Amino acid sequence: MSRPEVLTEIAVHAERLNLSSLLIPEHVVVFGQYASRYPYTADGLMAIASDRPFLNPYVGLAYVAALTRRIRLITNISIVAAHNPLILAKEIATLDYLSGGRFALGAGLGWMREEFQALGISFERRAKRTRECIAVMRSLWSEPSTTFHGEFFNLDNAIAYPKPAQGGNVPILFGGESEAALRRVATIGDGWIGANMTPEEFAAKRKRLFVLARQAGRDPERLVMMTVPAFKPERPADLKRYHEAGVHELVLMQGLPKRVEEVAPVLERIAREWVEPAAQLDSSICPAG
């Protein structure tokens, strides 16, 4: 969805047709060859070409925000540890402030070691760095001034304005299906974006997540539950099964069109087949770029 005229059509028609959110992924750089294994395919390779244009998701979502008034804006998934948290906190605060509080941070650790090496950031320490980034950003969003001393970041009496429209409550939705990923959601997340699961697989992971959240003294019922079927079948007939598994929002990756004139018909079909039935179940449907 990198061409501006296509992204414009997607944003305008997605909002018109009552899709709940629009998601944009993140990679800073990718590589023609890599040893890292992509976690969702049998051969460990991304199922998209290395020369696919990856928009900066924050700039892309700011573009969408200017075209819309209601639809929620989500990164899917932003590699938080690849960023300086002061700069990222400013970008997110600005986007949320200008969009009227419509942003949610879909956050993950990242899987491509080569990307971290190119950025000069430790792949092995990315989990700890992610937690520090989140702590710094939440403080910058909510406090008059921030003092923080950690392994990666140190600052005294730092002041950052504007605050997000949501203040320190910008939702942070973690991706990942491992035990460590579920524990991150349970302890510091506001929700979960699970991927590549059937309804039954999602329900089992959700059950474990709820156990971990209760152990952390948190109410799991307050967590937002999203899933991206990805390489599992995406069939409207399964919508009820996902709802019964506890999914609040289903993220579709149906190959959004590259031609402007094809956008409205494709999204209208998605609305007929998915959005209207989901509304009867009090669930939401959103497209991923």
Descriptive report:
By secondary structure, this protein is α/β, with parallel strands linked by helices. The protein has a single domain (4-287), classed as Alpha-Beta Barrel (TIM Barrel), CATH 3.20.20. It has helices spanning 4-16, 57-67, 85-99, 113-119, 126-142, 179-188, 199-215, 239-244, 260-280; strands at residues 21-24, 72-75, 78-79, 103-108, 146-149, 154-158, 172-175, 191-195, 224-228, 249-252, 284-287. Strands 1, 2, 3, 4, 7, 8, 9, 10 and 11 form a nine-stranded parallel beta sheet that branches. β3, α3 (85-99) and β4 form a beta-alpha-beta unit. α2 packs parallel to α3 (85-99). The longest helix has 21 residues, at 260-280. The N and C termini lie close together (6 Å). The model has no long low-confidence stretch (mean pLDDT 94).
The number of helices is: 9
Overall geometric form: globular
**Which superfamily, in CATH terms, is the homologous superfamily?**
Luciferase-like domain
Number of domains: 1
Distance N to C terminus: 6 Å
What CATH calls the topology is TIM Barrel
Task: Kindly name the structural category.
Answer: alpha/beta
List low-pLDDT spans: none
Number of strands: 11
Q: State the CATH class.
A: Alpha Beta
Main beta-sheet annotation: 9 strands, parallel
Radius of gyration: 18 Å
Q: Would you identify the CATH architecture?
A: Alpha-Beta Barrel
Strand content: 15-25%
Helix content: 40-55%
